[in-house]
Amino acid sequence: MKTLVTGGAGCIGAELVHRLAARGDRVTVLDNLTSGRYEHIAGLIEAGAIEFIEADVLGSPGELDRAMSGVDLVWHLAANGDVKYQPGAPTSRDLEQNLLGTYQVLESMRRNGVRRLVFASTSAIYGPVDRSPIPEDQPPAPVSLYGASKAGCEALISAFRNLFDMRCAVVRLANIVGPRSRKSGQTVISDFVRKLRENPAELQILGNGLQAKSYLHCAECVDAMLFVEESAPEAMAVYNVGADDSVSVRRIAELVTEALGLTGVRFLYGESETGWPGDVPRFILDARKLNRLGWRAKLTSEEAVRRAIHEIVAMQENSGAGACRP
Amino acid sequence: MKTLVTGGAGCIGAELVHRLAARGDRVTVLDNLTSGRYEHIAGLIEAGAIEFIEADVLGSPGELDRAMSGVDLVWHLAANGDVKYQPGAPTSRDLEQNLLGTYQVLESMRRNGVRRLVFASTSAIYGPVDRSPIPEDQPPAPVSLYGASKAGCEALISAFRNLFDMRCAVVRLANIVGPRSRKSGQTVISDFVRKLRENPAELQILGNGLQAKSYLHCAECVDAMLFVEESAPEAMAVYNVGADDSVSVRRIAELVTEALGLTGVRFLYGESETGWPGDVPRFILDARKLNRLGWRAKLTSEEAVRRAIHEIVAMQENSGAGACRP
């Protein structure tokens, strides 16, 4: 099996690449190292176990075609993974890196006759809805540019699948946490670790701390993705991937302070129900479709967060670590 | 009320512009005249009743900003309206003209503090589904690049609405038919009229003729759009707009031959269930949400098609006339 992993140096991608290489796939990684890190897969590259191409899915169609040549299956994880929109920032980032990037991957697949794709989508496509847990048949109503771009990617994949006879699996991921750091973007665990190392007396929390979301550990996420790729019967498979519970930001703050051995930390809360513009403050993914197919998360959301915190603290990371999003 | 209509020289756009001007709106039309026609609104322009800017939403941000200045409400209809994908053609047309074009409109709205939008979407976002009729809560699963691009537009609008405090209405239109011709793209009525004028003895039909879809007359479509804009209570309103029945391609062929006064025409059918790659051969839109809000189509799908055929034939159009799609 020859596989291409775009974004294969990112936190989810690197975990996936290690698993694919271990099972004997011939793996090519294409990553622009903007948010991914060479160190995550350096061992495999230097051992000659995988091929690495430093290139962007968006601006390098030649490199992408070279990476795509002879490939049986594409895992498309390359994306801007920072869900936050900073007021005043350009609004084009997610549209370009996620949606147009995905279009370039689909086009390269079409040009090269590659017909199998797994795409890392996100629970952020749903937006804030009354339904809980949220199943796959909930229509997308994203409130972030990140979620909108991923919803657009799913639509494009759906059309390409039909027109060019592809077989595609879309996994809508919960918040994924794990040990590998990333170079850009802050996520809740890394944000708390960094702030508490700077000032162990108090912790400023984005929003009112009551935000509560589904989390999944990166190792379990990759396990689920491999399972969906092998087991889903649909030519256009769409599966939520997450634990069927949630953990609050307030609880994550407690877990991080515990793991750092701190006591008496004063938590300072914001007033907003959301952590940032475009945040979906409370959601639980419905993973029953995936459960019925035969896969279930072993860790609860809180256990996944706890394990990631301990991995991060143990690795003595100083910044940027903690959670990853394709 | 100052309004901007993008695509205001198209078949739906021109009908809308006449209605808006008649009710006293100050109307600016921005159209690149690729598929729209100057003649459709020439009377209003030359009478000084509306302002016309010949420009593209995609490549002319300066012109778009000029058109957007001081606007209260945007009707965004500019798009590639040809749902057909020709094998071998570039796959980028809908992505660029529809999705990136819509992004430029949203960006110009944001830059200019314009907060109200009506967007012409399409039933093609749903793809072929078992459910009939199809309500608005059916998740998109497009099989055409056209449908995918419009689903992507809806997702972008959803995010912009939240982040920049807009008020948006998305109307998902059935097949719209009416008297105004367009310069590019063939649709079922114009295709049949043209073919029968070339050869009144036989008619080649795309697909097996059993395709059956919801149709709506252009005048009723504009009526519904005006109603949704005025009446929908939601900040992000999504409404199907169509008659709650369908008419078959075979029946349309009979109606066209009748209208042309032909008898004994031999119908030649294809073998495929679909008329072209990406066609959704059978669907009925569920318009009950719009009915409950207080609007209902007066014409059935067949009556709408019949009226459009007679208008087209009466206007002695020779080509390109018959149906329009934003």
List keywords for this structure.
homodimer; Rossmann fold; 2 domains; alpha/beta; 20% strand; 10 helices; 37% helix; three-stranded mixed sheet; globular; UDP-galactose 4-epimerase, domain 1; 326 residues
Brief synopsis:
The structure is a homodimer of 326-residue chains. Helix content of chain A is 37%, strand content 20%.
Description:
2 copies of one chain form a homodimer. By secondary structure, chain A is an alpha/beta fold. Chain A has 2 domains: 2-175 and 215-241, 3-Layer(aba) Sandwich (Rossmann fold); 179-213 and 245-324, Alpha-Beta Complex (UDP-galactose 4-epimerase, domain 1). Chain A is 37% helix and 20% strand. Chain A is built from 10 helices and 14 strands. The first copy, chain A, has helices spanning 11-22, 42-46, 61-68, 93-111, 145-163, 188-198, 218-231, 249-259, 288-293, 301-314, and strands at residues 2-6, 26-31, 50-54, 73-76, 116-122, 167-173, 175-181, 202-205, 212-213, 215-217, 236-241, 247-248, 266-269, 321-324. In chain A, strands 3-2-1-4-5-6-11 form a 7-stranded parallel sheet, sandwiched between helices. Chain A has a 3-stranded mixed sheet with strand order 10-7-14. The first copy, chain A, is globular, with a radius of gyration of 19 Å. The two termini of chain A are 23 Å apart. Mean pLDDT of chain A is 93; it is low at 318-322. The A-B interface holds A 85, 91-92, 95, 99-100, 103, 106-107, 110, 125, 127, 136-145, 147-149, 151-152, 155-156, 158-160, 162-163, 236, 277-278 and B 85, 91-92, 95, 99-100, 103, 106-107, 110, 125, 127, 136-145, 147-149, 151-152, 155-156, 158-160, 162-163, 236, 277-278.
